[in-house]
Design a protein that fits this description.
- With 318 residues, this protein is of the alpha/beta class.
- The chain is 39% helix and 17% strand.
- A five-stranded parallel beta sheet has the order 3-2-1-4-5, with helices on both faces.
- α7 links the parallel β6 and β7.
- The radius of gyration is 21 Å and the shape is globular.
- The chain starts with a strand and ends with a helix.
């Protein structure tokens, strides 16, 4: 799979003014993985070239963001992605038929998972027939695992037990990939995947399983799971380890589990819709509602009876 990555500079790259969350190490890693890389910025072409020369990275292109369409005509790729920090970046990207993600999501390096998924598909060997059920378990961290902030009811011992029983395990969280990896390293658990929850679709493409389950503590977790065609379970029910009964072939128990989560609504508690006047933000962070402990846009989506992430739709991620 050939991926073209177009980076805005100011507000996106760590060398920008202001600095952004995407590091030069991430850019180098993308280049080493075979991605076509370059910048599309408001800066003058000469200024962009000087920046790349100073950091010792040889890019495939530099351009202004309003001519991204010319970049697409020049380079042949399977996937085109532009990253930036402003609405104007998104508009230029979509006009040029690029996908777009915001700078903070770009810092999670979602293209790595896409490339890994493509490589695995190319090298797949047909599985030998087996009667064993393969289950993939995706854990949210904060509010779900006992190591989260806040801690959740799913213990690390439960995770280890699932792994030892042959489950494919990993995390899908709002946390940065580096933060998730560090957590697993400290626990001395090697997961098969770590990703951000809006990329669960890529996880499903990468791994073959008979049953896919994501566990979390928020309505947004449930929405991402269902959009990726995962079953979903709330954190307190996940702590009962229902997959053990499924793996042991206890038909009655597994049927109950399947019936309970097939709609992704096991013990779904319908909350009172948020009223905009109930929300409260602080001067320090105008994007976080301290009344409901959610991003303000998520509160607004509840108030409007729309249970999805507007940012995900804008990003164009699939």
């Amino acid at each position: 799979m050939k991926i073209l990555l177009s980076f805005d500079i100011d507000g996106t790259l760590e060398t920008g003014d202001p600095p952004g969350p995407v590091t030069l190490e991430m850019v180098k890693r993308a280049r080493d993985l075979g991605c076509i890389i370059g910048s599309a910025s408001d800066r003058a072409i000469s200024s962009q070239k000087v920046m790349w020369e100073k950091v010792g990275i040889e890019v495939d292109f530099v351009s202004n963001k309003h001519v991204l369409s010319e970049i697409k005509e020049r380079f042949e790729a399977d996937y085109y992605l532009h990253m930036g920090d402003r609405e104007l970046d998104r508009q230029f990207a979509l006009e040029a038929d690029f996908d777009f993600i915001w700078m903070d999501e770009a810092a999670t390096e979602p293209w790595v998972l896409k490339l890994q998924s493509d490589t695995d598909q190319d090298t797949d060997i047909p599985d030998q027939e087996t009667d064993e059920m393969k289950i993939l378990l995706s854990f949210d961290i904060d509010g779900t695992l006992e190591t989260g902030d806040p801690p959740g009811p799913v213990t690390i011992e439960m995770v280890r037990r699932a792994r030892d029983m042959g489950c494919i395990i990993g995390s899908a969280s709002d946390r940065a990939i580096t933060s998730q990896n560090l957590m697993w390293e400290k626990l001395e658990i090697e997961p098969e995947f770590v990703c951000n929850k809006h990329l669960l679709t890529d996880v499903k493409q990468k791994f073959k399983a008979d049953y896919y389950l994501h566990m979390g503590d928020r309505e947004l977790d449930r929405q991402y799971a269902l959009e990726a065609e995962f079953d979903f379970m709330w954190q307190d029910e996940a702590a009962t380890e229902p997959w053990i009964a499924m793996l042991k072939g206890e038909t009655d128990s597994s049927d109950k589990v399947s019936d309970a989560v097939s709609s992704g609504a096991s013990r779904l508690v319908i909350q009172d819709l948020f009223k905009p006047e109930d929300c409260h933000v602080t001067e320090k962070d105008t994007k976080w509602c301290v009344a409901h402990h959610k991003p303000i846009w998520e509160c607004e989506s509840y108030a409007n009876k729309v249970y999805y992430s507007p940012r995900k739709d804008e990003d164009g991620l699939s």
